[in-house]
Design goal:
With 428 residues, the chain is α/β, with parallel strands linked by helices. Helices cover 36% and strands 14% of the residues.
């Protein structure tokens, strides 16, 4: 079924884009450098499929990196956004839809009694940390190696090996002072948690998906909850990926551990720019203008984004989550089988709505282990899939995002392509 596709128009656009946009893109992973090819420019999407500017069709497993849990251009979302746009795109004043959305969200996440909307997950993270520092009167934030919380200066710290590392900036332009209060420890390693009591926050992706999907060991989140309670730090769950995806109530609902603050994004915007942070009432009431912790945004709670959000969440009942879990398992199981048939060492890790096939012969429990996966094999696999009309995340350290639009036929097409792609990987 191999049909290596012409991508002439994408190549032309990429040549122009590189003159105008750094690296030709507006966010780095889109450039596909990690899989050693040029980016594909997308013209349109419908359901589980996207079409590029050369009219090639793909089964899309990126789903805009998570927001499109309903698939592309879902009629309910398109209609809600069009209606909202016709009424006015932005007012800089409160609207009814913001109250409806807050009600929908707090009804799903028990620890989110109040919230503040933002336009991106990065902003939400930055603001949640400010609130945690204000509440505790402390500065240090603990995070985990391989976790990503947006491009907040203080969180761009290098992963340490084994033991805790005091923050070292991972990007030029990040002042050492910005990361000096960041402590980075390995994921799933309770013995490396600091014993001090000077943390403002323990910041955690409850099911990390930015080093690939690496779920917590049994009771690791409970340990973090207990550690936060002992030390007086706030436990912050970054549910930008997991929120409203792995379950109705996000990872906190799925795993039954409640944080103090939650960062949300992706699914809640339904493909439009919306994110939020929220938590217990007495904490959130410190946010201005109820309280003294400053936070603001011209487009926060934007009418188009809130309309998309409400329309998206209203499609997400228990039956939808059951279906998403089934789709995820069928894909994960199929990839496992196809790799085994081809004699390729693959460990597929998944939770409902998230999958990562690691080119590794053993389970991955932390970033150091993820980094040991065969990145060249993933790159060859991803390139071979693209040549066969399947669009996977162009990096080993990402999750595949099944949506409610993916069908059995999409999975079969993906697995047919995967069988051939694994064959190419095995023959390298
Ligand atoms: C877990 C997590 N937190 C925060 C962010 C940042 O969100 P945004 O890209 O909307 O700024 C991301 C983005 O991928 C993420 O995966």
């Amino acid at each position: 079924m191999s049909d290596v596709r012409a991508t002439t128009r994408s190549q032309e656009l990429y040549a122009d884009a590189r003159e105008l946009l750094p690296g030709g893109v507006n966010s780095p992973v889109r450039a596909m450098k990690a899989i050693g090819r040029e980016p594909i420019f997308i013209a349109r999407g419908a359901g589980s499929r996207v079409w590029d500017v050369d009219r090639n069709e793909y089964v899309d497993w990126v789903s805009s990196w998570g927001p499109l849990i309903l698939g592309h251009a879902h009629p309910a979302v398109v209609e809600a956004v069009a209606e909202a746009a016709a009424r006015g795109t932005s007012f800089g004043a409160p609207t009814e839809a913001e109250v409806q959305l807050a009600l929908e969200m707090s009804g799903r996440m028990p620890s989110v009694e109040m919230m503040r909307m933002t336009s991106s997950g990065t902003e939400a993270t930055m603001s949640a940390i400010r609130l945690a520092r204000a509440v505790t009167g402390r500065e240090k934030v603990l995070k985990f190696a391989g976790a990503y919380h947006g491009h907040v200066d203080g969180l761009l710290t290098e992963a340490g090996s084994g033991l805790a590392t005091q923050g070292i900036p991972a990007s030029p332009g990040v002042p050492a002072a910005a990361t000096a209060a960041t402590v980075t420890v390995p994921w799933n390693a309770p013995e490396t948690l600091p014993s001090s009591s000077d943390l403002a926050a323990i910041l955690v992706e409850p099911i990390p998906a930015n080093m690939g999907v690496v779920p917590p060991h049994d009771r690791f989140l409970e340990t973090l909850r207990a550690e936060a309670d002992r030390s007086g730090a706030l436990l912050i769950f970054d549910e930008v990926i997991t929120g409203f995806r792995v379950a109705r109530g996000g990872a906190q609902g799925h795993l039954n551990v409640l944080p103090d603050l939650t960062i949300m994004g992706k699914v809640i915007g339904g493909g439009l720019p919306a994110a939020a942070f929220g938590g217990w009432r007495e904490l959130m009431e410190r946010i201005a203008p109820a309280g003294d912790v400053y936070q603001a945004g011209t487009l926060s709670g934007n009418p188009l984004a809130t309309a998309a959000a409400v329309a998206t969440l209203r499609q997400l009942g228990d039956a939808a989550y059951g279906r998403l879990a089934e789709t995820t398992e069928t894909l994960a199981g199929g990839l496992r089988e196809a790799a085994a048939e081809a004699g390729v060492a693959l460990t597929v890790q998944s939770v409902p709505g998230l999958v990562t096939p690691f080119f590794s012969d053993r389970p991955v429990w932390n970033y150091a282990q993820a980094a040991k996966a065969d990145l060249q094999a993933y790159a060859a696999f991803a390139r071979a899939l693209l040549d066969r009309g399947v669009y996977p995340p162009p990096s080993q350290f990402e999750a595949w995002f099944p949506s409610l639009a993916h069908t059995q036929e999409d999975i079969e097409h993906t697995l047919d392509a995967a069988r051939e792609a694994f064959g190419e990987v095995a023959d390298r």
